[in-house]
Amino acid sequence: MTIDEYKKDLLTISTEVEKTMFIQKHFFHGTPFVFKERDEEYYNFTTRIAKNFNNVQYSDINIVGSSRFGFSPYKFTEFSFESDIDVTICNEALFDEYFELISDYTYQIRYREISLRPDQYKKYIKFLKYFSTGWMRPDLLPTNTLEFSELRQRWDDFFKGISYGKTEVGNYKVKAGLFKNQAYAEKYYKSSITQIQNMIKK
Description:
By secondary structure, this protein is of the alpha+beta class. The protein contains nine helices and four strands; from the N terminus they run H-H-H-E-H-E-H-H-E-H-E-H-H. Helix content is 52%, strand content 10%. The chain has a four-stranded mixed sheet. Helix 2 crosses helix 8 (182-190).
């Protein structure tokens, strides 16, 4: 799919059902651009990520963004060596595991068992903005507790370990977000469709 074809398809949809189908078809179905004609290597890459976490399957892993399309679905810029590989993990068990820690942490803040500096609080609010829509970025977790610091370090170390030529995906930085389930992932990407359509119409 070219940028022009993508724009043309976007302008033909209007209902919620059409938006959901568009997201499912173009954002989550098939082999991404970065793995074009390398289906087996894509499977190996997703399996590699899944095996790093408990109860996660290769089918829970997906590549989105410019590395899926060959161009940014938002900015319409071409995929390049400076682009990141954006990965989604959709798995309720893993999400709930993190949720327990975040819930306990929030209670500790509420009852002043933990105090945050203004800069730490700002970062935590940024994390919660993602979290409130059904997904999280563990790389944004606060590091002022040992538990969070270790968890974030494990997350960062793993994705650094599969970046920049160290795995099948090639010489790119790999980043990941964790969604509660596939429905929340689809909802997140669907929420931007109207905004993108308005950009195209300008």
